[in-house]
Design brief:
Elements lengths: L23 H18 L16 H18 L3 E8 L6 H20 L8 E8 L4 H14 L4 E3 L4 H14 L3 E3 L6 H4 L5 E3 L4 H15 L4 E7 L2 H13 L6 E8 L7 H9 L4 E5 L2 H13 L6 E4 L6 H5 L7 E4 L8 H14 L6 H21 L7 H9 L3 E3 L2 E3 L12 E6 L2 E6 L1
Helix pairs in contact: 1-2, 3-13, 4-5, 7-8, 13-14
Amino acid sequence: MSILPFLCKKRRRQGENLPLVQKKEVFFMKKVLAWGLALMMAGSLVGCSQSDSGSTSAAATEGGSEAASVSADAASGDVFTLGLIAPLSGSSAVSGQILQNATEMAVNEINEAGGINGEIQINLVPVDDEGVPANSVTAMQRLVEQDQVNAVIGSQPSSCTMANMEITQAAKIPQITPASSNPGVTESGNPFIYQMTATDELHMRNVMQYMAEENGAKTFAILYESSDFGTGGYRIAGELCGEFGLEMVANEVYNAGDTDFSVALSNMQSANPDFLIFWGYHTEVAMICNQMVQYGIDLPVIGQGYNSPELTNLGGAAVNGIMISTAFDAANPDEKVQEFDQKYTELYGGGYDQNAPQSYDAVYVIKDAVERCIADGKDWTDGETLNSYISSTNWDGVTGVTTFDETGRMDKELLIIQIEDGEHVIIKG
């Protein structure tokens, strides 16, 4: 199975199988037009507004009829409004687009099959937060107050999710993050937040257990990004290493956007560790691997955060041998995994990371919760009720069986993959 080295553009034609997108302004105007049409039919309205050119707006009239239909559907519970927050622009736009692609794929599948419970269409409302916490707060406020979502998927960075999830909690709206791995997300005590991705603690346990028990390692050095993600990984490494009989002999930190890692690499090499842990993202990790080759540093590398389709694009042969802890990989021969991989590749050209199937499964977890609500005669439009059904999920999806503990944290068996000649090979799991 190919490592999926690059993200291709969607090959879907304009308008083909796209989810509904509801915007408040349009919805309001359409309601006004619908009311106007009703009054005209009653004989109370005798005139029509004109466009700037002086001609009657036929499109507006049609929109009024459509709005009346949408409004009626919503009132009868035939529309489920699902918000999506992701970095659709900025430095993390590639990852954000992957989230949107996978979410759309699931939404389209469900809608084309008749909707949730065969009758409820999903209205997907994607909003860009650029991976910036302040923007994520604004985006969530829009989804809750303007779009009146029933549930939210996102965001990607833990810092964004931790910034915006108080809004969904206050509004009693369930939120599932397919990508935010900081344990603090669910340790917060927020009953309306769920992690569809393994926490950093689970990933670090996976890394240390594999290196200690399978490879006999005793010492390590860690190189981590100065973000919440990176510093969290460093903290967890220090807390867990003794449990596996490991000693941290060096630690180095870098900033996102750095290009020279010579000092950090030299310091870690001097400590003579058995292996290196990298806790950061693909852009810098690709450069770090190239500089390791340049400086003749030959040490096993393992970590998390850089399982991206761009890693081999940027790193080339230098990333061969690097290991990654992950909850999902297309190298898995499981039938569901292969079906997902084939469909995603057909629609979007391939090039995705573990967050794609996690986003995809998140949609189906919500669908399953709504259907169980209906089966029990409960009101799925009530946020607390829907949340109680999400909390008790036992969904068998692309990423395996999803259950949540009492905090909303997902627990799964994790994989370790290794890049060999530009391809992913599962070496554990």
